[in-house]
Amino acid sequence: MVQIIRKAALPSPSDVPEALRSVAAAAATIRLREPRPIGFPLLFTAELELIEPVVAFLHEHAVQRAHTADTVRTYTEILYDWFETLEQNGIDWREADPADLVAYRNRMLGEPSAHTKRPYSIRTINHRVRGVLRFYEWTVRSGWLCASPLIGRSNDFAIARGARPSHGAREDDADANLFVLRQFASLPRPLSMAQARELLAALMPPYDLMARWQLYTGLRVSELLRLTIEDVLKPPAALRAAPEPTHLVIDVLRKGRKCGYAIVSASLLEETAGYASAHRRAWLARSARRQGAVETPALFIGSRGTPVSKNRYQQVIHCAGRACGFKATTHLLRATFACMMLARLERLAKEGASINPLLIVKVLMGHEHIETTDRYLRAIAIDTCLLGEVLDSLSTGAQG
Fold this sequence. Notes:
Helices cover about 55% and strands about 5% of the residues. The chain is built from 17 helices and four strands. Residues about 155-175 and about 235-240 have low confidence and may be disordered.
């Protein structure tokens, strides 16, 4: 089966046999123009042959384009699953055709995930299919393949060509490919105020404060975990000179490494300062006593003195929501901020304020496209409480 072997650090001369120490010392002095980071994924076949185009593809995205670790991990998982499927069926990756990709897609439709044991969602299936298509587009563009039936006009089956509408889009666009299944975007269902309060009460430090940050600022998990103690508790000199600042505008690194900002209220800053002076300081001191001097710039750390991981935080929120009797996710906290903010801004606009609520929320959420923000406007338009009253009245009228 296909294997993923992570790049390790070079051994020090003292860690190798004496006959190899000179070689290890010489290797440590070699300077590479584009070194791959420690932990970089290397894909091998069952015969331990390096799958060079995949490694080159990941190298371009991880090193040259400097994509985030999450993006590289996603591409690695997609290509691992695709090449594992090809190997199990005895298909050379260079000879893969539309029928192979359709079979791969249909297998995910009919079989549960080997990892989660749950059926694949349409979104996950489309995400993997698009990843495979982008890889083959890259191989042709980079010269690994002269051509591939998976890209361009040749990926259309004859039976489907006559029915494809023409909207002026590129025919090799992976997002508009016939392999991609129809997908209907679900509207977010934000937490109610009562649910939000119940969830926060069920969380322990530092997760309760992290959830408050998402509810009050709308930050993504990755943006939240990138916050440092310097970002939050050491404001600029101009702000420190202000008598009583009501909020702080902090710079954040958005998704896709885009620059953005978040507006943090004074009350949230006070809670954060209290956490930093009590829990965070105590956990770091305990970690230093046990393991020596350990210091981290991360704002949110766990009781062991190490930065909170994304998976751990998501798991805590999920378990707390289940204990409260409703579904809770980190993305739902962000969606709750967007819907509440949009509802209040819409109310101000109706009262005469010269504002564009949708554009304001788009900036605060760090969305690239306004269509993404529009989902929250449609979500607040469909008030479940109001719909419940209408349905009750309809049923009462029908009985009468």
